Amino acid sequence: MKLRIQGNSLRLRLSDEEVALLAQTGRLEERIEFGSTDDDRLTYALEIDDQAQEMTARYEGGRIAVKLPPSAREWARSNEISLKSEQTIDPSSGKRLRLLVEKDLAG
Fold this sequence. Notes:
Elements: E1 2-6, E2 9-14, H1 16-25, E3 27-33, E4 41-48, E5 56-60, E6 63-68, H2 72-77, E7 82-90, E8 95-103
Parallel strand pairs: 2-8, 4-6
Antiparallel strand pairs: 1-2, 3-4, 5-6, 7-8
């Protein structure tokens, strides 16, 4: 699972095997280690949440969690390439976080 962060956008690209695993288990997780302690790691996860109405992202304690609604299982089995969403992060200023999950056609 490839992670791309640019400005206020977050993109996750999944290989065919990862798409199949997401549909089967409802969860993918990766991490990057910058050192030897837990504080030196960034973990990112993609999870299908049966209670979710839309795609959302959350960051806490060195972990990015992107939650997908149950309809993501059908997306995983379809020919549709991407899931897109925007999340309001500050209603007073209108700031939004753009979220994109894509099937990696090359991988």
